[in-house]
Amino acid sequence: MINLDNPELKQLAKVLQKYNLRHTVSRLASLLTVPSFHANNLRVETLVHIAVIHCRGNNRPSLKVIDRWLNDFLGNTSVNYAEDPAEDVFITNVRTPEGNRRLFEGIWQSSCYFTQTVIDILCSRQVTPELRRLLAPILTLLKLSDIVADRVGLHRWHSEPSSPKGVCELSPAIRIVDRGKSVSFTSDELSTYQINLALLDPFILKTSSKNLLCTETLGHTSLERYPILQLGNKLILALPNAVGPAIRRFLLDRLQLMGGLPTFAQLLDSYQSDQVESEGISRFGNADSAESLSTDDTDLPIYDWLLKVDVNRYLHVVLLTYPLEPLHNEGLDSSIGYRKKTEKTLCAYLNRTVNQCMDSPGKIDGTTLLLTGGLGGNCGLSFQNWSNRWSLSVIHISDFLMLVNDPDQSIARFLKFIKQKRWAEDQGVKFPPIIGDYTLFCFWLRSGFQIVHTELSVSPGSVLLADVGYPLNVRTKCRRTLDLHLIQTTNGGLVDVKRLDVDTYFHSLTARPIYGSINHAQAGVLAGAIETRRGPSWFSLRLRQKENGFRNHAFQFWNGFIDLFYRVVVEHESQNSNLQSGPIEVCLDLTDVVMPEVDAEAQPATEFVESRISVQNRTAVIKLPAVLLKYFQQPENIGEKYVVKHIAKALIRLHTRVVTDFDEISVEQLTDRIVNDAGIRVIHVLTSYDRVEQLLQKHNKKPVMLAPEDFAFAKLKLSEGCLPSDDVSNLDSRSACNSFLNKVVAKIWSQIRSRLKTLDRASVLRNLLYVHENILHDRNRWRRTANAVQALYGPDDDVHDTVHEREGMRSITDLATRTILEMAICECPESGGDLLSKEQLDELIAKAALMHEVAAHSDGIKNKLINPPIELHQNGSYSIEHEFINTVIEPFLKAYATDDFGEAASKYHTQYQNRPSVKPVEELYPEDFIEAFETEFDIPLQDTVEGFAEIFELAKDYNQIVVKTTLGEIRNRLTSNRGFSETKTNAFISAFSLFHRPKWDSTLPGMTNRDIQPWRYSRRMSMVFKPILVFGKQDTDVVIFGVGTLQLGFHYLLYCIEEGYLPQEFFSSDTMRSFIGGITDRKGHDFTVTVAEHLSTNGWQTRTEIPMTQIGASSDFGDIDVLAWKPNGAILIIECKRLRLARTVAEISEICRRFRGEAKDELFKHMRRVNWIETNPSRLNTIIGMPVKPNQIDQRLITNIPVPMRFLSNLPIPNDKIGPLNDVGV
């Protein structure tokens, strides 16, 4: 750091001698309250120190003078060059027994965390009265800090951009004279703030300490220990950003005098180990905990936990306890080392733990995560004897706690980052040790998870550099998102709270002042508060102690209604400005509420039981009736209105204290303003008659989605081995691009296959099917609640953007998962393979998703939808033109998601219908459909339905959504319970099962490569149509299936056959092929007639399916689907296309290829007819009965569904004339 006797500072010191101490220090100190100078704190602190040492004159510095000191004098010294970017927010928050206290974080490492640690320990029951007496001065100094923050208008977690090593722009807007008063306090002001001057005395700089300053070094100066100057009857907080460090040094001084350093060190070690365990280790909920190795030879300064966080991965969390003496003697940022013997023993212990884990069966890997504890200091261990058999990372305990509390699952990502960093190091990439892992992690987050960015090669000689400013944005986001602070309860106590809805999909929710109480949650109570200017409004639930069926759903109820409670509070307070301040509480008493049976018929809510409201001590308790949930079994939001009405009544009674002669009209008005939209639903009590849906709901888990960090990692070194030479930087020709992309696809497939060859087949299939099942359930849940989502969040969020983003992530994960399933049934060994880990699961999904992306790029290049060049990057990744993706694929998919979501919302009421009747297939499908089905699959359709029903019964008996059984059990159940013959059983299994093959990329007789390539559609080897995964043909062979996958696949097959959406070559029987041809023609004709009828009802005259030969053209011109005209001479030539919806990138590309208007494609044929007619308009005269003018001829391409061609550019037909009837202006 900076020595205050540095010769560079002498000239400035001489200048400052002419200036008044009080005015100079107060004005300079006030600059430490300016957020834009955060990165320049070192320069300002230096200037404050020099002023304190040397100022003795009468001059008062102006803003211009201070500007010269900072920029001209110090701007050219080592002080300026020593500045670093800010690493944390400007203002943090410390939770104390007296309330929240704002702290100027400065540039000290984790100042807020260490200050909070001191407060928590001194407030604990374990400390002696003598130690507890140290709390009063500390709280008084924190109060002073909070007052200064309040004076300058800074709130907790405030942060602004700031730049080191540059010019400090001192704007007149700073108002330096007035701002200087913000850090100054007169005796009268201290009395007004109820601050006891005597309690600040331990932080006031005395003459003896001031005399030492000129020989001290920033980071451990007397002014940082005593940051208050007493000048006459005024106090100046000379270093507002040193309040945290001053508290720690005050504590260490007192402990040293009392001989209490060892005792406090034990309390500190215990506090931090409990913190790591309760906040950190508990986050690894699915980890298997194992005992660490014991050390008999010596006591090590550690607490540790060995966790098996995955089937093949260990995490050794080691809390390194720091001694306090070096901090007291050498400074809070000093390097903490240990005796060589201790360091050697510690390293031996860590290595022994690694060896024990690595020597266990399987391919084991792991990470040792060393957390540095204490009250400051930096790790001085060299780890020269580290075995390097797995990764080692050192981070501060404060950063670890931030990682585990981050709603973005940062701890899981941090472990992935550590593994990727180790891989890069193994490739020869260097990471300077001076840049800590947490800083590199933040850089990795900000750079799109690129452990080696595009300008660096993944090879020896590459060095990754990142400045220390990257943690700022990560810490700021985490702190603001959680907003951990104190709120007062109705009994006067203070409780820790943090923001709810931190992991929501809707951005408007993340900033709302809705908080959950941590203290209540630890006691098993659901309570939260709405924090407004008036004060906190608490919302809690009271539940029956014994299980009554509702307790498992209590959080969902509370979380839903605290949202409506927030709206009631905000609305009521906006209409009433003179409400009494202070905490109030509304408690819903649900002790009598019972859950209806899952398949019970919904009963209409015709009578309502009035709830009782009792008010006492600013708390209103609403006693809700046992039949409450019946009110939610309706398509209207009757239940929400009922509860909100009682909440509104309770809230008004709390504020007005009126019990009798209550104004019911105001209650009704307030209720109506909150839930006037019938779509506002927070509780959906739906009766389910579907066994599959019941199972999915029962085993519902948060779905696994494509991990962007794995997707980015999969791109590194992607081009290696796929280029004609190593010195190629761009691929400019279409053929070169296609050749490259095809090789990349083959390379990714080879990587996937190599991984699958090492993994147990059943383990892979089961885990991936769970992913698929949970995605299906997540999609269904969003659709079922679509109406409520639009009503609740539509006014404040772009719901359609959110829906599109969520569905996009589901779709790519879904497609990747099915791809790996189809590969794994072939490539994974049945025995001898490793169990699939979560890490490998993410890796496989990412690689499959990447393979689909590259294949889509290849199709785009081939079909001239994407243009060269391909730009090749140093790290092995590549970039490609995104115009087609940005202008066609994304808008089309968003439009489809919006329409689909809107349709789901419109059907919300249908979910409350009673049990549907079960009809035989003869009543559902025509005779020719049933005949074709039996001919194709060698089993009657009704028997097929019975067969699937039996499979679902099997899943129900297993009580699993993913079932592992045997072929023999399925055969036995079909024959015993459904009366199937052996022939019928084998036909059912053969028709709907995907069997193990020796190689995934080898086709069966009669199949083509198109049938297995997962980016194609209408594939005969797709598990969509063959959802039962079978290991062989013997009764003992394993069978695995997912119930949702099974149901979806069978329903989709029937739908595609019924609608004629599968090509004839998909089927093998002539009967089915004939049926598909016939249904396609019939449906196409019916669609053409529908278009014509629509036009007829809108004033057009029409004719359909007119051969071009009828008007004099040759037969190769085909037919006009619809010709429409009006008496005014307007003419429409309409091409009707009945298409299957394109859902994937490959399908969209294929549809666009067919309709580009290029030679011999489907749009070209239409345009050829239009052009011929425009050239020969008179040929239409005899059909429409009047002369035809060429300039009155128009055209349309009308489809039965939204189509991506509508978003293409440079088509021979305007985009607004393509699409469904309602979208093309006819």
Features:
Restriction Endonuclease, 45% helix, 1226 residues, 32 strands, eight-stranded mixed sheet, alpha/beta, five-stranded mixed sheet, globular
What does this structure look like?
With 1226 residues, this protein is α/β, with parallel strands linked by helices. The chain folds into 7 domains: 7-86 and 134-248, no CATH class; 260-405, Restriction Endonuclease (3-Layer(aba) Sandwich), CATH 3.40.91; 410-482, no CATH class; 483-675, no CATH class; 703-907, no CATH class; 921-1059, no CATH class; 1075-1223, 3-Layer(aba) Sandwich (Trna Endonuclease, Chain: A, domain 1). It has 43 helices and 32 strands. The strands form 8 sheets. It has an 8-stranded mixed beta sheet. A 5-stranded mixed beta sheet has the order 6-7-8-10-12, with helices on both faces. Strands 28-29-30-31-32 form a 5-stranded mixed beta sheet, sandwiched between helices. The protein is globular, with a radius of gyration of 36 Å.
Write the layout of secondary structure elements.
Layout: H1 10-16, H2 21-31, H3 41-54, H4 63-73, H5 78-81, E1 91-96, E2 99-104, H6 111-122, H7 129-132, H8 135-151, H9 176-181, E3 184-186, H10 187-192, H11 197-200, H12 207-210, H13 222-225, E4 228-231, E5 234-237, H14 243-258, H15 261-280, E6 288-290, E7 302-310, E8 313-320, H16 325-330, E9 335-336, H17 340-358, E10 365-372, E11 378-379, E12 391-396, H18 397-405, H19 410-426, H20 437-446, H21 471-482, E13 485-488, E14 494-499, E15 514-517, H22 518-522, E16 527-531, E17 536-542, H23 554-575, E18 584-589, E19 612-616, E20 619-623, H24 638-656, H25 664-675, H26 691-698, H27 708-714, E21 730-731, H28 734-756, H29 761-784, H30 786-793, H31 799-827, H32 838-862, E22 870-872, E23 878-879, H33 883-906, H34 921-924, H35 927-937, H36 941-958, E24 962-966, H37 967-978, H38 982-992, E25 993-995, E26 1028-1030, E27 1038-1042, H39 1043-1059, H40 1070-1096, E28 1101-1107, E29 1119-1125, E30 1131-1137, H41 1145-1154, H42 1162-1175, H43 1181-1184, E31 1193-1199, E32 1218-1219
Parallel strand pairs: 8-10, 9-11, 10-12, 17-18, 18-20, 25-26, 30-31, 31-32
Antiparallel strand pairs: 1-2, 3-5, 4-5, 6-7, 7-8, 13-14, 14-15, 15-16, 16-17, 19-20, 21-22, 22-23, 24-27, 26-27, 28-29, 29-30
Helix pairs in contact: 1-3, 2-3, 6-14, 8-14, 15-18, 18-19, 23-24, 23-25, 24-25, 27-32, 28-32, 29-31, 30-33, 31-32, 31-33, 32-41, 35-40, 36-37, 36-39
